[in-house]
Amino acid sequence: MNVPASDYFLYPEVAPIDRLDSACQSHDKECSQGGCSEKGDTALRNAALMVAVTTSDVRLRATATSIALAMHLVKDKRSR
User: Fold this and answer.
1) Lowest CB count within 10 Å: 12, 15, 34, 35, which one?
2) Residues 5 and 31 sit within 8 Å (Cβ to Cβ)
3) Whole-prediction pTM value?
4) The domain containing residue 66 runs over which residues?
């Protein structure tokens, strides 16, 4: 189920399954409280990069790398 960031507060917290999921949840929560920010995007990018370089799970590494790249590309386009 895809939940828009603006509706994040309507759903109970779900325990993250790994460090990347935890970072994504934190980013989603921040985005639901006034919109996404360059600071939040940078924090998620950095967390995703850390996961990418420390995990031995190939799929998780690919996912983390993709998220880091996406956050790097959008962070300068945020209005806050």
Assistant:
1) 12
2) yes
3) 0.81
4) 19-77
Question: 18 in helix, strand or coil?
Answer: coil
Q: How far apart are CA 62 and CA 52, in angstroms?
A: 7
> Tokens for 17?
């399954």
Q: What contacts 80, CB < 8 A, 6 or more positions away? A: 34, 35, 36, 37, 38
Residue 63 lies in a domain: yes
Q: Indicate whether 7 belongs to any domain.
A: no
- 35 φ/ψ sector (left φ>0, alpha ψ -120 to 50, else beta): left
Q: What is the pLDDT of residues 34-63, one digit of tens each?
A: 888 999 999 999 999 999 999 999 999 999
